[in-house]
Amino acid sequence: MRETLREAWEWFVTLPHRYHGLMLGIAVWIVWMIVGFWHMVLLAVLAALFYWFGRLWEQEGSIAGIAERLLAQLASRRRPRDGM
């Protein structure tokens, strides 16, 4: 049993992060569907959102890198422009 779980974990860890995000999105969707607040369209929205998050995670290499990138974009939007 432990060996099977270890092999499953090793398979899961070797997947690209975009699939981790996709699985997380599907899990969140299932919880919301059980509670009863969302419709079937939410599956597509959450899957796309978490797939996008997983791709960003792959590009940046860490969640901290994603946060830095997003915060830098927010800071550049709020910065007043010279000459105005």
From TrEMBL:
Keyword Membrane: yes
Transmembrane parts of this sequence: 20-53
UniProt keyword terms in alphabetical order: Membrane, Transmembrane, Transmembrane helix
Protein name according to UniProt: DUF2273 domain-containing protein
Organism: Alicyclobacillus mali
